Amino acid sequence: MDVDGHVGSLYRVLSSAVVPRPIAWVSTRGHDGVDNLAPYSFFTVASVDPPVVLFAPVDGADGLKDTPRNVAETGEFVVNLVTDDLATAMNETSATLHAGESEFDHAGLERADSTVVTPPRVAEARVALECTRRELIDIGGSTLVLGDVRYVHMNEDVTTDRKIDVEKVDAVGRLAGSWYTKTTDRFSLERPP
Ligand SMILES: Cc1cc2nc3c(=O)[nH]c(=O)nc-3n(C[C@H](O)[C@H](O)[C@H](O)COP(=O)(O)O)c2cc1C
Questions:
Q1: Is residue 126 part of a domain?
Q2: What is the Cα–Cα distance from 173 to 180, expressed in whole angstroms?
Q3: 131 exposed, middle or buried (CB, 10 Å; 0-12, 13-18, 19+)?
Q4: 193 CA to middle of ligand 1, Å?
Q5: Which alpha helices (H) appear in the chain, and where do they start and end?
Q6: Per-position pLDDT tens, the chain of length 193
Q7: Which domain holds residue 154?
Q8: Is 37 exposed, middle or buried (0-12, 13-18, 19+ CB in 10 A)?
Q9: Which residues' Cβ are closer than 6 Å to ligand 1?
């Protein structure tokens, strides 16, 4: 289809065509001291050396969403990994709350102190990437948020020989609409030389 004139349906087309997507569960702290937490599935690794991740908030009805606004104001965020057991809580944190209310409390999640940034981590998350703002790039009605990974938390439950073990991390991915996928149905392919 020609993309001109189809902006309304393009969200569904793109979010159905680019699947499954990992979910960055991003915690930030606002200037008002409120801890914000929200899922973003337009998310990937931008660079390994230096370690940089990116996610792409689409503007809400009132412009920038809280997460990119907090990153713009404070320069810090944490990407928490969403596993099977946390999927329902993750979904709860995408609710629109009153100003001053934290998604941590709304979803009944514990905060854990971060090591090098101010926003707390999700205590229940097995992996968390503490990040500082590298760059925010406007792309029309979206903002690309690039963050330098400064510290990595890994729970022993999901590691083997101190490395994250994909066979132990039951991460979930986002499909389109309200559909998600589990990563427990795995298979292995050897790379050709
Ligand atoms: C699994 C999931 C993935 C999402 N991914 C995105 C995304 O990539 N970009 C986006 O703008 N909104 C995304 N959303 C919607 C935001 O989470 C939602 O607008 C949230 O209220 C934003 O919160 P904030 O204003 O506190 O940042 C997603 C929602 C869910 C449930």
A1: yes
A2: 6
A3: buried
A4: 40
A5: 7-17, 66-74, 87-92, 103-106
A6: 777 766 668 999 999 999 999 999 999 999 999 999 999 999 999 999 999 999 999 999 999 999 999 999 999 999 999 999 999 999 999 999 999 999 999 999 999 999 999 999 999 999 999 999 999 999 999 999 999 999 999 999 999 999 999 999 999 999 999 999 999 999 999 999 9
A7: 23-174
A8: buried
A9: 23, 36, 38-42, 56-58, 60, 65-67, 91, 94, 96, 174
The structural domain count of the chain equals 1
| Cα–Cα distances in angstroms (integers) from residue 41 to residues 9, 91, 98, 142, 193, in the given order | 18, 12, 23, 13, 32
Measured torsion, CA atoms of residues 28, 34, 39, 43, in degrees rounded to the nearest 10:
-20
Q: For residue 4, what are the β-bridge partners? A: none
Q: What's the pTM?
A: 0.97
Confirm whether 15 is domain-assigned. Answer: no
